[in-house]
Design goal:
Elements lengths: L1 E6 L3 H12 L4 E7 L2 H11 L3 E4 L8 H10 L5 E6 L4 H9 L4 E4 L4 H12 L4 E2 L1 H7 L8 H11 L4 H8 L3 H15 L4 H11 L3
Helix pairs in contact: 2-3, 4-6, 7-8, 7-9, 7-10, 8-9, 9-10
Amino acid sequence: MMRVLLAEDQALVRGALAALLNMESDIEVLDSAADGEAAWREIQRLKPDLLVTDIEMPGLTGLELAQRIQRHELPVKVVIVTTFARPGFLRRALDAGVLGYLLKDAPAEKLAESLRMVHRGGRAIDPELAVEAWSEADPLNDRERQALRLAGEGLSAGDIAARMNLSHGTVRNYLSEAIGKLGVGNRIEAYRLARQKGWL
């Protein structure tokens, strides 16, 4: 029996995934969480075999959750189910030890098959996306990515500095490095391009 925890911020999708997986005789949905921090607490409490998570969630994203699981060396296998068919996201997911990466428009039976494959120690990744993922490397480091994400939310350099516990000058350097690496004119263009590529 595969013990699964769901992490998805949209209640309707969360309910549909739970209903779908509970129809399978070899899958038990232990619980579900509406954000990354709640999912992290549930992982420690319930110790599931598999985490099925979205990427974009409040608190911690699915990718940050996968990175935290990897850092703590927890024996939880991560499968991402998302609408984001972006190679940059897949590449970051693979770097974080994610074993499954499925798009939400995949056929319903594909999810259960993929969970079984991952549970057995395999990988379940959209093949076209996998090819694309290795065609263009993500040029941003974690700090540049974090500063750019906050800039995209409309925060000033001073606000970003306070949020990241850094000096104003350091944040300006991170933003200008990101702008330079992406070959654009300003932080908003940098944010848009990085989002489009799946690097944020």
